[in-house]
Amino acid sequence: MRLKYKCIILDHDDTAVKSTPEIHYPSFVEAIKKLRPYESPITIEEFVGYCFEPGFHTLCKEIMKFTDEEMQIQQEIWQSYTSSTIPDFYEMFPETIQEFKKRGGIVTVVSHSEKSRIERDYLKHCGFLPDATFGWELPEHQRKPFPYPIKEILSRFNLKESEALMLDDLKPGMEMANSCKVDFAAAGWSHTIPEIKKQMKKESKFYFETIEEFNQFLLD
Prior knowledge:
Blueprint: E1 7-10, H1 20-35, H2 44-52, H3 56-63, H4 68-84, H5 93-102, E2 106-110, H6 115-125, E3 132-134, H7 148-156, E4 164-168, H8 171-179, E5 183-187, H9 194-203, E6 206-208, H10 211-219
Helix pairs in contact: 1-4, 5-10
């Protein structure tokens, strides 16, 4: 059966795996307690909102005003959390991408998690490594939302823009896909903040409330 897209470009956190409540937010709170002990930590809703816009790196550098040394400490605390916790995939997500790959699809990941953690999660829950992975270990100008990861995927696998689909729950992924003229789909199953849900519904080419909806779209 012919696939709608030859390649899917997947976000990881809160698109494939349930990681913000279990890993990213708690580690950020711990970093704030250490680096800004007299400040109250931001709420999880504020954290998700900042990650949506203007993005995590800007949250650290411009809103929290972390120095380079403080960024390193934050990174070390985060790495401690990511190394000790393997997040669960959302139900039905592994089966969806396994079937896509079985039908000859190319599975790639562009995320703000580290490549080693992403590959660990895929091996444990999906039984295979992504065909390409672009993570936080890259220099800033090559990370999402910059276009480098998608351009590299298109070039590496000899794909037209119309042959790839980006799936992400937040705005940086949408901006990256739009800048590369690649179709964008919003992963709505992790959205709990009404303002984010409303904006992603309005601005995304496709919006999926559930993984079942995404599965039917991708594979039917």
